[in-house]
Amino acid sequence: MSTGYEFEGWMGLDPSAAEGNMKWQGYEPKRWQETDVDIKITHCGICGSDLHTLRSGWKPAIYPCCVGHEIVGYAVQVGSQAEGGIKVGDRVGVGAQSSSCLKPECEECANGVENHCVAMTNTYDDNYANGDKSYGGYANYWRGPSHFVFKIPEQIASEDAAPMLCAGITLYSPLKRNGCGPGKKVGIIGIGGLGHFGLLYAKALGAEKVVAISRKATKRDDALKLGADEYISTDEDPKWAEHHARSVDLLMSTISQPNMPLEQYLQLLRVHGTFIQVGAPEDRMPAFYAFALIGKGVKMGGSAIGSPAEIREMLDLTVKKNVKPWINARPLKEANQAVVDMAANKARYRYVLVNEAHAT
Prior knowledge:
- The protein is α/β, with parallel strands linked by helices.
- The protein is 25% helix and 25% strand.
- The strands form five sheets. Strands 3, 4, 5, 10, 11, 18 and 19 form a seven-stranded mixed β-sheet that branches.
- Helix 5 links the parallel strand 13 (209-214) and strand 14.
- The longest helix is centred in the middle third of the chain and has 20 residues, at 158-177.
């Protein structure tokens, strides 16, 4: 269908794209359906998933691919069957998921956990049910199903809202589901784009104590400003696991290193504590002895983004508690350099690409 605007973006053509070799070019979005929304993109966060995908780290990418799944902009076309009361001109966003089957017989969709639907579609580098490819937000426009498009509260700046839609919900959802709140002591492993949201939302949810855990001491001051009550540098203290044993109820691991000291992390849990992995290494996680779980009756689990209902709940809490992420804005035209800097861990703590042509 004719729209009066073109879909163009930074495209990864091969694994070298992750080294700053994306190419700006046009692409064909999914075929329009009356449940869809077109978004004129103003902001898009850079996520670690973008790098994994561009370099075909988790699996072979479907090149050409346009990454970016922390998208905020304005609705410029809204289908007649769109959900959520979205109107043309509304400021909206979309996260890492852009579709699921939504069938009433689907246990996951019927129970509000669409992010675990076996037919879920990722916002980029995936295919919709009709076979059309999904493309992400390093672009000027985005098209997708309205069920996964969210109105952005006016109190949240667009550059702040964008990374909440993946990084933010990736921490908010498991924190909330696993009982983070008054009386709970929570540890956040890895103080980066994901981890800094872990500190912010653990504090916003009312945790009794929030502990930041990182290899080096260089992020100590930042972590305390973000809401941590205590900081553990594992490089500084060779006996860190012993000194802090049985100290937290809930551990969130945001790191993606396959050689993480997993068994030592489990030592930090109190009796009946819970360890949740949200970082996604490209290789297997380390092996460990079963007694690391059995001895204290602890649990291990994982979490993937969050449901649409949880995203709206997170945005409401963000307004109520004035949650403010630490953002480094970068022009969309500099996306190639930004992904290189992201890979070099230079972000403090989340890069957000700004489409200056649309953000003014």
